Amino acid sequence: MKKIGFLSFGHWSQSPGSQTRTGAEALQQSIELAVAAEELGADGAYFRVHHFARQLASPFPLLAAVGARTSRIEIGTGVIDMRYENPLYMAEDAGAADLISGGRLQLGISRGSPEQVIDGFRYFGYAPAEGSDHAAMAREHARIFLDVIKGEGFAQPNPRPMFPNPPGLLRIEPHSPWLSERIWWGAGTRATAEWTAQQGLNLMSSTLLTEDTGVPFHQLQAEQIQRFRDAWTAAGHQREPRVSVSRSIFPIVTDLDRAYFGASRGDQDQVGYLEGGTARFGKTYAGEPDQLVKELAEDEAIAAADTLLLTVPNQLGVDYNAHLIDSVVRHLAPELGWR
After folding, report:
1. How high is the pLDDT of residue 325?
2. pLDDT at 339
3. What pLDDT was estimated at residue 276?
4. How much is the pLDDT for 277?
5. CA–CA dist 45, 26 (Å, integer)
6. Which portions of the chain are predicted below pLDDT 70?
7. What phi and psi values does residue 102 have, to the nearest 5 degrees?
8. What angle do CA 304, 262, 40 make, to 5 degrees?
9. CA 84 vs CA 90, 97, 110, 120: distances in Å
C-alpha cells in the first residue's frame, strides 16, 4: 500500500479568486486541511518552507498545532532549508512538536532552493566558513542537528545548577526517541540521493530535478531512487528506508474541476535553468479518472516510491483542496493498487 499525503506551499495573496489572503489564513487553513485530510483517509500533511515570501515559513508552530488537532496522519515538511537553521534550537522545536503529535513527525530537510532575497541566510546570522559555501554550511547544520537528536549527552553541566541535573553530560530536551529515523533529505540529483543514503536519511524527491539526461522526468527520478536504494544497501543500514515523490494530480470529476484544470491535460515535462544549471520539471496530471489511472500507472518513479505527496493549490481554499484529496483517494488509489 502506498502512503498518500498532500504538500502545501501555503501561499497567500490579495489576488482575485484567492481564498487565502493573509498569513493568518494560510496557517489556519493549513491546520484545517490537515484535519480534513485525516478524516478522508489520507496519510500525510506536509508543508513547504520558504523565507522572505508570502508562504509558510517557520514550520514548528504549525506542525505542533496540526499534531494537537489530529491523531493519526503523518506531519512533515518538504523541505526545511538548513542554511537558515540553528541546529540546537531546531532540535528542541522538533522534539517538542514530535512529542505533541505522538511521534508522527516526518521532517524533510535540505540545502534549500533559490530564495526571495540574495543570501537570505545571512540576515538570519549565518555565513559559510572561509573556503566553504552555502551548500556545505547547510550540510554542517544538518550534521549537528542529526547528531543532537540522537539523545546523547554532550553539554557540560553547571556544578551549581538552578535545578538538579541527571548524572553525566546533558542533552537537548525535550528528547523524542526515534525521531532520527524520520528525517528525510530533499535531493535534486542522483549524486545527492546517493549521499542521502550514505547518511542514513530517507529520500524526498520533488517535481523537479536539477539535472537533465534527456529522458522523461519520471524515468530520471526512478533512476535517482534506484541509486539511492543501491547506496543504502551498500552502506549496510539495518532499517528499510522510505522514499517520497511529489506530483501535481488533478482528477476531473466535476464542472469546477474542469474549469480549473481542464486546460492542463496533455502537459509535458519542462526543461529549464535553475541556479545556472539545467533542470527538468515533472508534468501536471489532469484529466478524467480513467485516463489518469492509465497515465499514472506508467510513472516509474511513483511505482518506485512508498509515499506520494500531492501538491495542492492552497489558495483555492480548504473545501476544494479536500475535494481534490478525496478524488485521488477515492477514484485513483484503489484502481492503481495504492489502497
Report:
1. 98
2. 76
3. 56
4. 61
5. 14
6. 265-267, 269, 271-280
7. 75, 30
8. 55
9. 10, 19, 11, 8
In angstroms, rounded to a whole number, what is the distance separating the alpha carbons of residues 295 and 333? 13
Instruction: Please state, in angstroms and rounded to a whole number, the distance separating the CA atoms of residues 257 and 265.
Output: 12
Question: Can you give the pLDDT at residue 255?
Answer: 97
| DSSP line for 174-235 | S--TTGGGGEEEE--SHHHHHHHHHHT-EEEE-SEES---SS-HHHHHHHHHHHHHHHHHHH
Nearest alpha-carbon partner for 225 in 248, 249, 209: 209
Give Cβ neighbours of residue 94 (< 8 Å, ≥ 6 apart): 60, 105, 107, 145, 149, 176, 179
Q: How far is CA 233 from CA 19, 128, 145, 188, 230, in A?
A: 46, 32, 24, 20, 5
Per-residue pLDDT tens digits for 49-79: 999 999 999 999 999 999 999 999 999 999 9
Within 10 A of 13 (CB to CB), how many other CB atoms are there?
A: 14
